[in-house]
């Protein structure tokens, strides 16, 4: 867990429930040392996530019932890691501009990024129409439509090169949390390995959870496009959900002659994720 994370000390849900009445009926049981929420209950997961958005970041966020509910802890870890990366390798003092690929219904990464960094700006792409509309509404609700520019993406077009707003200006970074899975069968297998029944973490649209070839294939597409854009974007980064994916991607970067890359493990509770970034610029 990142040391600057507001989740470094677990939130006191019992206290938060006093300020956020939506949490009160969702307790599965009360323990002597605090309260326990059933995170396999999608209603509970959405309620506590809305509470965290508001309490820690001052954001009012709607989470559609048929779209992924983001776990804010590991998303924030990614954002804070990017803050460190940008700070250590920044080329000038111009305002930082980043891009989130596949922002989802909550636009979680741009919202957290802007909440943490008042002078930064973000671009965000989304191909799914329902998620695009929900993200647009969340940006409007928080008066952030000018600082976070939402772009409608075509899933069959290039990831980056289809957007004039992306290729027409220098960017400090790209961030991405691609779908982990190749198909429904892989999702079912993963759910069984994690305890059998499908949990709230597996509730989402196919576009959020599945991509041909899984996260490795998606990231390799991103890498191929990065070779065309080169230094126009300083850092190309992605979050990965499988250690095997990390090994494949790092091997590919090395074989392609990329020696300026970064690898970092993000840990939140029992959840492990990895971020990999590469750059064509010399700063490291």
UniProtKB/TrEMBL annotation:
GO molecular function, one term: methyltransferase activity
GO cellular component: nucleus
Any Pfam family the entry gives: Methyltransf_10
InterPro entries xrefs: METTL16/PsiM, METTL16/RlmF, SAM-dependent_MTases_sf
Name of the featured protein: Ribosomal RNA large subunit methyltransferase F-like protein
Source organism superkingdom: Eukaryota
Coiled-coil boundaries: none
UniProt keyword Transmembrane helix present: no
Binding site residues for S-adenosyl-L-methionine: 75, 102, 126, 177
Keywords, in A-Z order: Methyltransferase, S-adenosyl-L-methionine, Transferase
Stated family: Belongs to the methyltransferase superfamily. METTL16/RlmF family.
Gene Ontology BP terms: rRNA base methylation
UniProt keyword annotation of S-adenosyl-L-methionine present: yes
Residue ranges crossing the lipid bilayer per the database entry: none
